[in-house]
Amino acid sequence: MTAASSSVINEVLNRIEKLESELISVTSTLIRFQTISPPSNTLECAEYVKSYFEDAGLEVSLHAKEKEKVNVHARVPGESGKTIIWLGHLDVVPAGMREKWRYDPFSGAVEGERIYGRGASDMKGSCAAAMIAAKVLSEVDKKDHATVDFWFTCDEEVGSPNGTRWLVEKGLIRGDACLVGDSLSKSPREPYIDVGCKGYLRLRLKAFGKTAHGSMPFYGDNAIDKLLLAVKNVKKIGDYQLKLPAELENSIKSSINYLLKNRDLTEEQENAIKRAFHYPTVSLTIISGGIKVNVIPDYAEASFDIRITPGVNPQTIAEKIHELIGNFKASEIEAEILNLESGYYERWDSDFALSLRRAVEIAVNMPPKPKILLGATDAIPIKKSLGIPCLGFGAGIEELAHAPNEYVTVEGLISAAKVYAILPLLF
What we know:
Helices cover 35% and strands 23% of the residues. By secondary structure, the protein is of the alpha/beta class.
């Protein structure tokens, strides 16, 4: 880092600290827009984001596949020859039962160092931090930083069919690296960078039998009994040890240590966490069957959500599942792969990772650690389509996402805004 660049970075950091009140206000305002997915109506919220950027003198545009499902793009041009994509989403999950909330979930209430509301941590806080960062970065000489395309999308919580996936298909999102703001940690004072996320396989088992009176089961063929046997076999995939790239082991170890920091874990939970990356996780999430208590069921089905560490092709797991239920006749059990998608990971020592690590350490005064997400983010379609490095860092608190009394801290907001603003000066 040159003396001049150190000076510019310090100016950016100081400028963000001076905008703390504005950052809190923008976060609170974003929360007040009820951008629940579904239906993912982000129109009014997107118009607010657009007006904020216009007031700051930025180039901004709206993009929509469907009228009310609106995505926002703002560009801060630079002259380094590189473009960073900052990616976040404006939609939120439903608030749930109002009586479980301390404040109205869409009030954006501010209490001390916390801003409460649905989406505060996931991820309107990070969106607000990006808006402030874009404003501050636009005040910096273009020759000192990369171009940044800030994208605020409409429907990440329901799979992004009108958001990131559509934008990528249309060729609207382009760049050399992607920073995903949809990232959570336990505390802004212990920073983590998301270096990848798991892939998934969604499976439905269908069992077929023959109805009979419940008092005469010997005349029927119980589909639920067959299903339970098949379910037991599918769960054995959780004991299939994955063949993972050796370069992933340090990130896996760091991820396990991160998860083990959770409070009040039982021994069983700790053991499950220690296995969660070297083996698939298998969750039986839906099961149904039968039509009446005194009728032997002729049909039953079960659905699984199976998560697979990056570096492993989910298709190999699908093949193993078919082997595990191979003893059943096709007329008795059908296994349907609903969808599958590979995860991804980045090297901790890549150029982009080193730049982000430096930005985080400067902003937080603490070196970050890597972690691999158990779930998925919009980084997957970006990685799949563009093949560029994708890393995650955000303001949110993990245990609060999708929970009652969700909030984001002012400290977390400031840290994220600083990282988003100085990364383009370092990459």
